[in-house]
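Run folding on both entries below.
>entry_1
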Amino acid sequence: MNSKQRLRARIVLIALLLAAAGLGSSLYWTQVVKGSTYIAKADKQYDKPPVSLFDRGSIFFESKDGTRAAAATVSSGFLLHMNPKLLSDAPNAYEALSHYLTLDKEEFIRKAERTDDPYEEIVHHVDQKTADSIKGLGIKGIQLSKESWRSYPANEVAAHVLGLTGQNSESAIEGRYGLERTYEDILVRTSRGSNASAFAELFSGIRESVFGNTALEGSIVTTIEPTVEKYIEKTLQTTADVLKPDEIGAIVIDPNTGEIVAMASLPTYDPNDVSKVKNPALFSNPLVEHVYEMGSIIKPLTMAIGLDSGAITAKSTYDDTGTMTLNTKKISNFDGQARGVINVQEVLSQSLNVGAATIALKVGKENFVKYMAGFGLSGKTGIDQPNEASGLLRNLENGQDIEVATAAYGQGIAISPISITRSLSVLANGGMIIQPHLVKEIEYSDGTTKKTEVDNTTRILRKETTDEVTRMLVNVVDTALLKGEIKMERYSVAAKTGTAQIPDPGNKGYYTDRYLHSFFGYFPAYKPTFLVFIYQIHPKGAQYASETLTKPFSEISKFLIDYYSIPPDR
């Protein structure tokens, strides 16, 4: 190639590069800088101020067989709006639209009269079929725009776990409660125009890489098993219909892994429509964010501390005097009656406060507090929910015998439901503290996945200790709880009830007629698949938890055994 040919080739190459640069610049200007403007002009049936369509990662439930169902997703449809300047006959327009939508006539006419405003919203979330019918009416001034929104296909199911999205101070949609908030950095999406082109997406990706947006977007798969969750919620509702508690809730957990297959609380809400919720506090998850004095379900922990520390053995006896005075304050059994010299098994079988206090005092304050801290009762579990509350054990740590004694049977200390569930799981799994969690897997948009990894390797109690406490709790179910009424011939079940007085903040004491009822149990007792915790606040018509929660627990345990085909152990 001679010099003239090389020069000619260079000129052609430079011309091509300039043309490409010009074309790229033009495309950038048209599709990125002015894209939304041209889209709005081109797509006349979506004639409204141009906005980006909402997008967000999904949240899934996963059934026991691995089948997934959307728990939170993005739905698409249309927004119906009007331009009052163009609407010539509002009454007739209302009548025509009423064949397809439920509209408030007075509000519709009122908006139609705002002729100085070219844009008035009428109805959100219009489906495709209805939108096609409305478009066919050809009403001048009535317009449709594409829109997308967060939706929860199962409505109220696991609402407190899933949470909500909402607008922040900059009008951007973000997670506000539950998993939506905890995994915001995974679920959030960069806004995209409703008709963004591949070229525009390319420049968007370049901008993200240049400016350091390296967060991995994705979707999450929960540990919630939808059939179990629905059954738990139905059982809670049936119980609430009879007893009218101020609040009722339950947790079903695998005590070996920390996976939560169900978590529910009533009253609840439908995250698809929160217009009827008057108090925003309803959106919070009380199983994680609230603390309560739990009562006698603490006694098995106290028994375990006594056994593990060597302060007592399973064959130990004590003189139950019915009452005890410590630091000038009197405590007593639930009925105030003395039992005399009895075996420590009766502390659990008869739920004796004096017996639990005796064991704790024999262990000693310093050692007792150390064990309670080991159960994690004063801290947080680290569950993947926002605003987790820490336990309130300050009374236990102030040094007085009376505080140690009352803490031994679950009064004077306040603990969240998820915290007590984790602590009781130590008894069920052979002595290990677990990490409760609600997400089992993250699926990133780049095709990679990440399994939830938790540390369940910290030992709190000796295996021999938990075996002994389990044996004692099985004895409670077989012989003492409702006189053995819920004993299962082919399955061993370890369980304990709790009835706690509710603090009266006005009088710096306790209400005399209000109680918190709690119940926990695990099965099969010596190699458990599940632990179930239930509580309710101020149920009406019954004083003791054995009267109100034994039946719901029995129904839940039988359902789980059947649903998961759990083999018998005796």
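>entry_2
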Amino acid sequence: MLTQFSRFRCTLTGLVAAAILVAGCGAATEAQRPAAPKPAEAAHALRDAPLGDDPLTSPRTEWFRHGKFGMFIHWGVYAVPAGVYKGKEVGGIGEWIMSRGKIPISEYEKFPPRFNPAKFNATEWVRIAKDAGMTYMVITSKHHDGFCMWDSKHTTYDIIDATPFRRDPLKELADACRKAGIQFCFYHSIMDWHHPQAKGADFPKYHEHLKSQVKELITGYGPLGIMWFDGEWIKEWDQAKGTDLYTFCRTLQPSLIVNNRVGKRKMTDGDYETPEQNIPAGAIKGRLWETCMTMNNTWGFKTNDHNWKPTTDLILKLIDIASKGGNFLLNVGPTAEGLIPEPSIACLKGVGRWLKHNGDAIYGTTASPWTKHPFDGRCTVKGSTLYVHVFSWDRPVKLVGVKGEVVKAELVDARLGAATYEVTSDEGVQTLTLHRPETPSLDATVIAVHFKEAPQVDEAVAFGPPVKQVAEGSIVLAARDATVHGEKAKYESGGGKDNIGFWTNANDWVSWTADVTKPGTFTVEMTYAAAEGSGGSEYVVAVGDQQVTGKVAATGSWSAFKAETLGKVKIEKAGKTVVSVTPKSKPGTAVMNLKSVILKPAKD
């Protein structure tokens, strides 16, 4: 699923002040962005990188681990039809129009003579990527349609021989990237809808053709960063061929990084994982990884696709990915004229403005010490610095269980003012509290917390102290004290709300730890709200190893709360007990707005 974050906006005064700050972003100097390892020099120095090295620690992947943010480019003759064939729009992604539109090879071959991207400017494309804060570029050398975007000596079905353009844009981009300090990389499709030997009994001959073209790319464009393969799902491709192609690439250029789609996407294939159009729930243990994603609904250009992701959403996705130790490969689909669409450029400019002032918290960072974050935001780490990315300031950010001596805290974007914080300790548990700055960022406010040594966290207590049982015996589990597990649900307040809301994903759940001093039998009472048409969600309340179930009834609105008694549970012993609410179904817009769970003393 696509990770999105909902949050509250600032007051009007805060919005105006922040808008002024954003308007001034263009004055930031390039020196403000941390430099990644230089691509050409690094690759040359690693010409003898051994095949058996560990991608997690190898010097050849250092630039990738540091760079975090790359530009994916899907560009080919499919930009000519741009999603429309014979006057009718073809569903699906643009670069698949040959397959989805059932276009015969003879008809598809009429597109290259119409492909003349006279407005293509490699320097301008690289400038757009650089201004967005991107550190590498991956472009389609050949997609599944089989058309080659370089002057291949093994076919005439390429941009030099089959189009009026007669220039090699890959060569121009490679040169422009090298001048700008951007890592240049290739996407290459294993499958091929155009080549007559690309399936069936003749596949071994195509396999040799494939390797010959891959060799042209690896040996003809200088030091490369990545060979990004795709199309490995065809039945003719097997694990042995994948292993052979990986070795072939690394032998030709030992410094290369090769993605997992060179094989059958096993956890041992290539150098890193490639989740597509989604962000994993957490770090992928033991592997480098990179989420690739579109800005709208398509990879290749489609005239009628205007469903652009907001800039803020892209920034939060970048932060989320970095907090889990991954990279973000964000796609643009240029037109047949050779232009990157203006909405893409506008989105990228916005991301670049944020990175110019907050890049320290992204580039060269490692994953958060939390597997789930106890506030609306994420964390990244670099050395002894914990970067706290706050998405909304509903209340002060409390980081309970943080270990280590805090030296100081400061806003990464100094234009937002000073950071105010305090460190407290209760029964040996340290809490770092960060307060809302006077003018928080409209996207994400980042506070750098500098520790004496590398920051650590005790996740057993990281979500706050246990809820204590009150004197008369009740245990009141309020929404504001809950730990939210998942991607969508979050605590919200104001406007009559004081609840877990935005619960649009049935996989999300919430929990509390209760400190029980008087065990016994308890009645479970839920207080929730649900708008008309959004009732019907079934859920389980677990108290230790016991459960009661319930079904949400519509209450009239998302702020019309009602209390409902579900049943009884028995807590046998004093001590800490985990209480959780887990949905079983979600037929409506959201599960519910959950205000509280109360355990009330009852007779056996």
